[in-house]
Recover the amino acids of this structure.
């Protein structure tokens, strides 16, 4: 879908805004987007008069639900693999996929005054953990966990740390384990750490230690609402950009306004 088409769709939807013509749209979004998308939801509803429902979970869980016929109109994944899988199944609306955002991967600590860590091959994360656990999202399914395992593997840390990993169903659940003091350290996105005052960031993983962290978005082929174009245009507009950047994301898609 070209920018011109998206803008025309947004204009049409905006012109229809109002209680008498309110429609709704359902978005499945990776859990790491919770804070930003809560604000996007409010902004889109205020701008259009339409209802936006956002369901959050790990990208893998959302993709499986979409494959099983869940009634979503738009999917925002925290990595390209799950979006690729849906594309291979023919479940994406042609021409609507865009790489929207990027993020960084950080090591967080439950101790707010924890010393900074130089993240690299010389780091002894296993010794830092002691008898404690390293909180991570599912390392074989959830993007944050996949990125984290890739980073630790590339830095020669994974074999020693693997027995001490406490896996959570999504990145926000891993964040909560550290925030509650259940794990002394965890690996999450920079944006998750920024949203939680009960943890501290002790280091950022080198960008070349893991695949690029990308958040693609696409409309789903089975969607029967005319609002998908308007919503995708809003996501790429200046108001949404400001929200995402305040939350710590890097916007990749060109701004439409």
């Amino acid at each position: 879908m070209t920018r011109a088409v998206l803008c025309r769709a947004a204009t049409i939807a905006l012109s229809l805004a109002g209680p008498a013509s309110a429609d709704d749209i359902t978005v499945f979004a990776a859990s790491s987007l919770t804070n930003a998308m809560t604000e996007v939801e409010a902004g889109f509803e205020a701008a259009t008069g339409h209802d936006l429902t956002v369901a959050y979970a790990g990208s893998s869980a959302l993709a499986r639900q979409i494959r099983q016929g869940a009634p979503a109109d738009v999917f925002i994944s925290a990595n390209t693999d799950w979006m690729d899988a849906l594309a291979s199944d023919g479940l994406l609306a042609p021409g609507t996929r865009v790489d929207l955002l990027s993020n960084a991967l950080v090591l967080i600590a439950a101790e707010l005054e924890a010393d900074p860590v130089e993240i690299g091959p010389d780091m002894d994360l296993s010794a830092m953990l002691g008898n404690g656990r390293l909180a991570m999202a599912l390392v074989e399914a959830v993007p944050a966990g996949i990125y984290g395992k890739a980073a630790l593997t590339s830095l020669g840390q994974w074999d020693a740390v693997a027995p001490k990993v406490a896996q959570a169903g999504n990145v926000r659940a891993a964040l909560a384990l550290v925030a509650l003091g259940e794990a002394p350290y965890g690996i999450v996105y920079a944006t998750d750490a920024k949203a939680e005052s009960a943890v501290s960031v002790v280091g950022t993983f080198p960008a070349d230690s893991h695949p690029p962290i990308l958040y693609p978005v696409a409309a789903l082929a089975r969607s029967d609402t005319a609002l998908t174009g308007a919503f995708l245009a809003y996501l790429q507009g200046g108001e949404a950009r400001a929200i995402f950047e305040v939350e710590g994301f890097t916007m990749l898609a060109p701004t439409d306004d």
Q: What stands out?
A: The first strand starts at residue 24 and ends at 30.
